[in-house]
Amino acid sequence: MAAELLGCLLVKRQLDGSLLRNVVVETEALITICDSIQ
Known about the structure:
Layout: H1 2-5, E1 9-13, E2 19-23, H2 33-37
Antiparallel strand pairs: 1-2
């Protein structure tokens, strides 16, 4: 799943109407207590 996000463009409309654009350049995986139980 994370590899599919690389290079994706994320766009958010700000309260003033302007657009904030960002490209996903890296992802990270974290292990939580819930992950280790399953």
